[in-house]
Design brief:
Blueprint (H helix, E strand, L loop, with lengths): L4 H5 L11 H112 L3 H16 L7 H15 L6 H14 L6 H7 L15 H16 L15 H23 L3 H18 L5 H14 L11 H10 L6
Helix pairs in contact: 2-3, 2-11, 3-4, 4-11, 5-8, 5-10, 8-9, 9-10
């Protein structure tokens, strides 16, 4: 623009040397290039500084990471040492647990053996009492004790024994009640009463009703009074009675003694049969005792009638009850002990 102005205005000013446009462009380009160079240089410096800062930061982070890694390695080594110690203790505890478990198993086994031996002995005694003496109440008590003893153990191997004992106990409790003690006391009372039962011959020796006195008037003639006294005397000397059992009058004192002893022996046999629940023997002995009493003793005496009433009451008792055995419980105990019967 500055170059065209003198032409348009038409002034007479001397012509100035033409401006070298190329030079100006070159100078401008050179300036721009320089400016661009300086700007690029500054940007490069900034980038280098930023890179250096980042490298410095990265170096610090790396060092921190190295420190952290060292700490981590140290912690790892410490944890490994602790883990090794824990593993050693775990192994030691496992060994102790195995030892205690073995000891507990041995102890439990011994207790179970003692329990089974005790139960077997109790059941054996109860079975003998039941079979030999018919002691149902004693057997029930023994089984209840065994059941209570077994209830304190939760060993699965005792389930069969518990089941067998419960079944036998239920069977015994279902039996009809028999007052063995009361019947035994009555038999003992009869044996004691046999000593004092009046014999028929005693009744005849002591005499029955006294002979009625003859009433003779005091003013009667002497021959009448003499005849009355003679009649009274002869009545005291000679008596005529009816006797259906003549052999009862022929008993000597020794025979009377043995009669009472036989009567007591019969009652004693009946007592044993009662304990054994032997109904046939019991009834036979009581029937024999009743025959002795009816044949040789005075049935009209109150003592004899009372004695025979008690005997009839005892004879009315029925002992024909089949007693169970405890073989199922004993078999279960022996199976639990490992001694199965072949």
């Amino acid at each position: 623009m500055s170059e065209a102005t003198p032409v348009e205005n038409g002034s007479s000013k001397p012509n100035k040397p033409p401006v070298n446009l190329a030079l100006i462009v070159a100078v401008v380009a050179l300036g721009l290039t320089g400016w661009q160079y300086l700007d690029t240089r500054q940007q490069l410096n900034k980038a280098q500084q930023a890179l250096a800062e980042r490298l410095a930061d990265a170096g610090g982070s790396t060092k921190a990471l190295q420190n952290q890694a060292e700490l981590t390695q140290a912690s790892t080594r410490e944890l490994q040492a602790k883990l090794a110690l824990v593993e050693a203790r775990v192994n030691e505890s496992a060994g102790q647990y195995a030892t205690l478990s073995s000891m507990y198993q041995e102890l439990t086994k011994d207790r179970s053996d003692w329990l089974l031996s005790e139960v077997e002995h109790t059941l054996g005694v109860a079975s003998q009492q039941l079979q030999l003496a018919g002691n149902v109440s004693g057997a029930v008590s023994a089984l209840e004790v065994v059941q209570t003893r077994l209830s304190h153990f939760d060993n699965p191997g005792l389930i069969g024994v518990k089941r067998a004992v419960a079944k036998d106990l239920e069977t015994l409790k279902a039996l009809p009640y028999l007052d063995t003690v009361g019947l035994t006391v009555k038999l003992d009372t009869l044996m004691l009463g046999a000593e004092t039962l009046p014999l028929v011959i005693d009744h005849h020796r002591l005499g029955g009703k006294p002979v009625a006195q003859l009433n003779v008037a005091a003013d009667a003639p002497w021959w009448s009074r003499l005849a009355g006294e003679l009649t009274q005397s002869l009545g005291d000397l000679v008596r005529i009675r009816r006797m259906d059992k003549p052999e009862a009058l022929l008993l000597s004192p020794e025979q009377a003694f043995f009669l009472r002893e036989n009567l007591k022996m019969r009652l004693l046999d009946a007592r044993l049969a009662l304990i054994q629940r032997d109904g046939a023997t019991y009834q036979a002995d009581l029937a024999a005792a009743g025959q002795y009493a009816a044949r040789y003793f005075d049935r009209d005496a109150p003592t004899t009638r009372q004695w025979q009433a008690v005997l009839s009451e005892l004879a009315a008792v029925r002992l024909s009850v089949t007693l169970p055995d405890l073989s199922a419980s004993l078999k279960a105990v022996r199976e639990a002990q490992g001694n199965k019967e072949e």
